[in-house]
Each structure stands twice: as C-alpha cells, then as structure tokens.
Amino acid sequence: MHYLGQSEFEKKMNAAAVAQNILYETDFTNFDLVDDSTIKYDGKLISISTKAFKDYIEILKIPKKFLERFEESFGKDGRANFIKVLKEAHAGAKNAKVTLVANQKRHEIVAIRPGNVKLISNEECLRHASGIIDQFDLKVVDFSISEDGDISVSTISPKSSSNIKSLGPDEEFNSGLTFNNNGHRGYEVLPYLNRLACANGAIFRKVHGYKETYWIKNMDPATLDNFHKEMVSLSANNFIPEDIHHRIERAATTQASLDEVNNAVKLLLTKSKVKYEDLQRWIQIDRINNEYNRFGIDTAKLDTHKMKNAKTDITVWSLVNKLTDIASHNYPEFSKFDDYSKKMVQISAGDLLLKKTYDTENLIKSPFQ
C-alpha cells in the first residue's frame, strides 16, 4: 500500500492553504438574494453556487418541493417575493447570524451556513490533524482537495489489521481515521476502513448512531481535550470501529434491493461522470432490469417503496465493495472522477454499510405466495 511521504504531504498542505475558502460571518439582514445565482452584499453583486442557494433556502426552512410548486403557481417573481418576505421575517425574529463561505479561485459563495455551524480554516484543521497523525503513528493514504476548497485526508494504523474469518481470507482490513473539513459540515473526524485484498477504502459518518464519528464544532481547550480522550480510547482498539465485523457479515448475507442498486448507479453517474454503458461492467443494472422484465415486472413502473422490496442478485457487501473499488482506484472508464468526489463516494459506501436495516433484510417469505 502506498503512503504519502512527508514532502508529498506538505505539498498537499500548501495547496490546501491556497485553496481554502474565506469565511465571512455576518447578519442574515446584511445581504439580499437577487436570484438563484446571485446575492447583493455590501452593495456588490456576488455569484453564489447551486449549493449555496440550497443553503439559503434551508436556513429559511422552505421545502424544495413546496418552492417548486409555488413557482409553478405564481411564477419566478412571485417566488422571489415569497422568499424575500420569509427572509425578512426570519431575520427580524432571530437576528440570525450566518457564515458566507467564499471560494477565492472562483470568486463565488459556495456555502451559506447558519451561525450554529462553526467553520474553521484548512490550515487550522490540518495543524490539528497533523498532531493526531503524529501522536498515533498513522499513515496518510490519500489527501484530496475539492474545487470548492474542501479537504479530506485518510489515514490508517499499520498495526490495526483485523479479519472476518467467516467470510474468507479476502476480508482483512486496516483501520484508521479520515479528517474532513468543508464549508457545509465543518471539521469532522471519521472512521476509515481499508480492505487489504483490493485496497478499497470506506469512510463512516455519524449516521444511524455510529459513535466513532466526531464533529469538532470549535477548537477551544475543553473540546480538544475531550476529543483527545476519545482518540486514546479508539486507538486502544487499533481504530477498529465497534461492531463493524458484525455489520459486514450482515451485509454479506443480505441481497441488495433494486432501490439500493439504483441509488449506487445514480451516485456514480453523478460523481464520476462515467458513461452509463461503461458502468454496466461494474454494476449490471440493465441486466437486472431485463431479468425482472422477463419475469413480467416492468421496473420502470415501480415506485420507490416497491423497489425497496425487490431483491437483486448482488449482496449489500458486494455493492459496497463495487463503490469503494471504483472510488479507490484510477480505472480508465472513470477518467473524469476527481479525488474529492471519490472520497464522497467512499462516504456514501460507508453510509450504505451502516444502514440500520437493509431494504430486504426483514422480508418474510409467505406460505400464501
């Protein structure tokens, strides 16, 4: 396995410092939404990204579907007036603070975060992460920087090797940590699992109650002291997430639903820009749909609930590994797949593995079928 050397890591740190976003904390009343791609701040028109516009709408707690229906009924001007009225009411009632996240390279606001989401610079994040890496003798396996200035650093502990004997010799892993800093979620430290047989990496967020994920909301001494105690405890278990072996065994014996497979396909099409026909080599969704069609079921007519009850011949663990395999290597079909988007797919693979209940896990075979 390739580890990043010190000089390579320092080059990445310098690049992350250059790419880092500028954070402006301001009152919600200090800027106005002109349209979906522009705000007016301090008398100047400033571009905002699609994500930033979604952030703005989320702060106002306007459901996306409702806003779409409102525009259909009252047009763009009606929608704009509706947003303006809600914004004024929101700001007047709460005197809300927000953070504008500005991308230096694109001269664009890439995120608008509410005041309770504390953001820190890439430099501050990496100073802290470097201390953890050095203290626990972690090895950096990759370091990615997104076009929005977000960063993700994955590490492993070489002495953390573990295996799942019931699933065969290929299921051997190294565990470690991923350090993420982005304009939406802030600074997070997440469990990282690397499958040694094919060097596939999966990252686990705090979804479904997974406790080894840490969201560092600020860098005050008390917060960092508590975090350090958690790291000492986790390192005592060689950074192996609790219950991960049992989860993998469940995933390996559960067939993925048509909905779970479709979601994986949509994820890869969006994040990697792969051609649909090239993706068939990895996830044979056309073959699965054709098998259902031959069985008399038109999958195109199934709603989400029915797709969740439709089994495929792919296990959840196999689907997770397809995602992590693609997101951990440089295959020619995925030449447009940037490093940071690969990290996001690794996180989505971790989310799938950590689902509280897989779609087909509790289906009961009926004697009346």
Please characterize this protein's 3D structure.
The structure is a single chain. The chain is an alpha+beta fold. The protein contains 12 helices and 15 strands. The strands form 3 sheets. Strands 7, 8, 9, 10, 11, 12 and 13 form a 7-stranded antiparallel β-sheet that branches. Helix 7 (258-272) runs antiparallel to helix 12 (339-353). Mean pLDDT is 85; it is low at 206-210.
Question: What does this entry show, briefly?
Answer:
The chain has 369 residues and is α+β, with helices and mostly antiparallel strands. It has helices spanning 6-19, 50-59, 64-94, 122-135, 221-236, 244-252, 258-272, 276-279, 285-294, 304-308, 316-328, 339-353; strands at 22-27, 31-35, 38-41, 44-48, 97-103, 108-114, 139-145, 151-156, 162-163, 172-182, 186-195, 200-203, 214-216, 255-257, 311-315. The chain contains 12 helices and 15 strands.
Report the sheet-strand fraction: 15-25%
Form type: globular
What is the count of helical runs?
Answer: 12
Topology order in helix (H) and strand (E) letters: HEEEEHHEEHEEEEEEEHHEHHHHEHH
**Which structural class should the secondary elements be placed in?**
alpha+beta
Q: Termini separation (Å)? A: 50 Å
Mean pLDDT: 85
Sheet with the most strands?
7 strands, antiparallel
Helix content: 40-55%
